Amino acid sequence: MESLQTSDPRTVKGRIHSLDTFGTVDGPGIRFVLFMQGCALQCMYCHNPDSWDPSAGKPMTVEQVLEEVEPYLTYYQGSGGGITVTGGEPSLQPHFVAKLFHEVHKRWKLHTALDSSGFNEPESIADLLNEADLILLDLKQINREKHIKLTGQPNDRILKFAQWLSDHGKKMWIRHVLVPEINDAYEDLLGLGQFIGTLKGVEKVEILPYHRMGVYKWEQMGKIYPLEGIRTPTDKEVERAQRIIELGRTGNIG
Questions:
Q1: Domain harbouring 123, CATH code
Q2: Would you state the pLDDT for residue 3?
Q3: Which pTM was predicted?
Q4: Is the pLDDT of residue 6 over 90?
Q5: Where in the sequence is the domain holding 138, given as residue range(s)?
Q6: pLDDT by residue (tens digit) across 160-193?
Q7: 185, 147 in Cβ contact below 8 A?
Q8: Is 233 contained in some domain?
Q9: Total domains in the fold of the chain
């Protein structure tokens, strides 16, 4: 594989699910958000199940993506924003995303964020992780067996990924989608907080309330939605989860 310095942004290609030119929730400031195609997990609450298939999506070169970013540079630069790459799972296309981050750093000095489930082996995507200014790490469930039920995969590699980021001084925002009856048990939230408390570089812990906005995609794809009947958590439930995780993380509610 060519290095990031020598590879041509006009020829490095990735498979793209979609893009958003005015994101405000996936990192600091206003952001260009690129959704990559392909994912190794199949989360029961996924709002982009159409992103799972790695052979689908629209092929685009790095240069083509940069052309989509450029018209909105004033907003990204003026707000302290930048570009976030999410999915799907962006680390499954590491050279493309690393090259994209490399180019936005070189051309515009934009902030880069990688939104990842952490399922990939960190040593194999070190170039990508070195080009990311911030990792938005999705920790979905600390209990291994419950994680398998929720996502179809164990969480061993994910916890190893988090530890690697900590050991290598990477800045992280931990994200946790709160789903009533699925991952809101006291012991699971406390255990998650205790694990986060062992990590260095965690700047923020975000509790994201589960929503049903992607249900129609499951229906369009002829899939049975596995969380039918599960409601969105209330503000009080989100606050409770935040308190329990903080208790596990720090040892006191404060």
A1: 3.20.20.70
A2: 80
A3: 0.95
A4: no
A5: 13-179+200-227
A6: 999 999 999 999 999 999 999 999 999 999 999 9
A7: no
A8: no
A9: 1
